[in-house]
Specification:
heterodimer, A: mainly alpha, MetI-like fold, 0% strand, B: 266 residues, Phosphonate transport system permease protein (chain A)
């Protein structure tokens, strides 16, 4: 029983790891500030400019509403159609990347890799590429949103498919269902609600994305930023911003309520 | 044993189904009616062929040019914008996180206002913020850093505040009982509980910011986006190919590293 008496005060863990991490972060920050020419001096020099811009943004030019309402509706249309395209294309992708649907690793790893690849490309880049192909207008924007939301919906859905209950799958196999029946009656009822919820979620993201796609000429409200900022009409800019925020918040609210009802 | 009766088919709400169906149909009619169908440009096929061939035969010489303005420097710039922007927002959002946390303020409405403010910042598109900062501090990476730093407050503040809402008050009560000052309670009881979550969310936001930083250049806020949009405008598709490849490789590597760190922390 000597051991109990010989208990010492535990040694404090070495702090070197923390110091090292701290120095590493400082070096990273210093390097980044150097690379981007960010200094406090520049920030302070920019301050008067900031206030003058903010000053010109208030009050917003309410009369400009009439000019942008059409573009705003276009933006929502683009988001609706883009999400629909993405939702349809995502279904086969989701099935082919779920490990309990397709047993072969040779199928689902490449498909997942493709999905990851799609998700690394920002939607604005996709839109810029499609503008080069199809010309200016909402069409390239719709395609860009479609491809972008395919990546999101397919990933979330395949994870939902992998999480389903095995029971119905086994009983469908036991009664001799073919592959289509198997998916229709044992997979679809289990993931349908999740799928719809993910489609709505991606619609929310797409509305936000569609609002800026116009910056590269892909239609929607974004085109008006270029137009008004170019002429330094900040009061109109703030009208556009307020309108966009309002629409996004309303759509978010409706979509969130619908999703809560689903799950 | 009574004869087994067939189970009755569950009655579905037919009215509700029809309402949803009609609403969706109307939505699509409305959406499709607004899309101009002037057909594709006749050059579309040609250009897509050029793009595909350009992307599959990237301009490897562009990776490093001794005189500057090459892929590696562009990517480094992008990385630096993302790092600095993320750090600024991680630092600035801490007070907002405590403001928006339900368990930190006595009055419920106070936290509600904080939450609304954060969701407002979240909704404000970062590219629009970048456009405004370009007008304020001039075009370049600094505008991008400021835009990311300000925009990320919205999301990080929300995630941080959820972390703060989940803390256990036991340790802070124990410290108060031993006579610790408020700052000491914060440092020794609250901070150790929320720090892993904070770091993990910051890394997650860093992944998102890296993607955003790679497109900020399109509007002139620094990073790899600027050479990319120039290459696109001059139809130099092999250069577009190498830049896209560079972005994909960088994002993938950073995702892997950040994911590994996040797994280790939590």
């Amino acid at each position: 029983m000597n051991q109990v008496n010989e208990q010492k005060i535990p040694k404090a863990p070495s702090k070197w790891k923390h110091y090292f991490t701290f120095i590493l972060i400082l070096l990273l920050l210093w390097g980044s500030a150097y690379q981007t020419d960010s200094t406090f001096k520049e920030l302070i020099e920019g301050f008067p400019n900031m206030f003058s811009v903010l000053d010109q943004m208030i009050p917003p030019n309410w009369a400009y509403f009439d000019n942008i309402i059409g573009a705003m509706l276009d933006t929502i249309r683009m988001a609706v159609l883009g999400t629909t395209i993405g939702a349809v294309i995502a279904i086969p992708f989701a099935i082919f990347s779920a490990s309990n649907m397709i047993k072969s690793t040779w199928v689902y790893y490449p498909v997942r890799f493709l999905l990851n690849l799609v998700r690394t490309i920002p939607e604005l880049l996709l839109a810029a590429i499609f503008v080069a192909i199809f010309g200016l207008g909402p069409l390239p924007g719709i395609f860009a949103l479609g491809i972008f939301s395919t990546g999101i919906i397919a990933k979330l859905t395949y994870e939902a498919i992998e999480g389903i209950d095995k029971g119905p799958l086994e009983s469908m196999t036991a009664v001799g269902a073919n592959k289509i029946q198997w998916i229709m009656f044992s997979v679809v009822p289990q993931v349908a609600a999740y799928y719809v919820s993910y489609v709505l979620y991606s619609f929310e993201i797409n509305v936000r994305a569609a609002a800026i796609l116009g910056l590269v000429g892909a239609g929607g409200i974004g085109e008006y930023y270029d137009r008004t900022l170019g002429f330094l009409e900040y009061d109109k800019v703030s009208t556009i911003i307020i309108f966009t925020l309002l629409v996004v918040l309303i759509i978010d609210y409706i979509s969130t309520k619908l999703r809560e009802n689903l799950l | 044993m009574s004869s087994a009766t067939r189970p009755i088919k569950p009655k579905k709400n037919i009215v509700r189904r029809w309402v949803i169906f009609i609403a969706l149909a109307l939505l699509y009619i409305w959406a499709l009616s607004g899309v101009p169908v002037e057909g594709f440009k006749e050059t579309a096929g040609q250009i897509s062929k050029a793009i595909v061939s350009g992307i599959f035969s990237p301009d490897w010489d562009y990776v490093y040019l001794p005189e500057g303005e090459d892929l590696l420097r562009g990517l480094l710039d992008t990385l630096a914008i993302a790092i600095l922007g993320t750090f600024i927002s991680a630092f600035l959002c801490i007070p907002f996180a405590f403001w928006a946390a339900n368990n930190m303020s006595k009055i419920k409405a106070n936290a509600g206002i904080g939450k609304f403010f954060l969701s407002f910042v979240r909704t404000f598109p970062e590219l629009v913020m970048a456009l405004l900062f370009i007008k304020m501090v001039g075009p370049g990476s600094f505008a991008g850093v400021l835009a990311l730093g300000l925009h990320s407050i919205g999301m990080l503040g929300k995630l941080f505040s959820e972390e703060v809402e989940n803390i256990d008050f036991g340790p802070s009560e124990a410290l108060k009982a031993t006579g610790a000052r408020p700052l000491q309670t914060l440092w020794f009881a609250v901070f150790p509980q929320v720090l892993p979550g904070f770091i993990s969310y910051t890394l997650y936001r860093f992944e998102i910011n890296l993607r955003s930083a790679s497109v900020l250049g399109i509007i002139g806020a620094g990073g790899i986006g600027t050479p990319l949009i120039f290459a696109m405008q001059s139809r130099d598709w092999s250069r577009v190919g190498i830049i896209l490849l560079g972005i994909i490789v960088m994002v993938t590597i950073v995702d892997i590293i950040s994911g590994y760190l996040r797994k280790k922390i939590v």
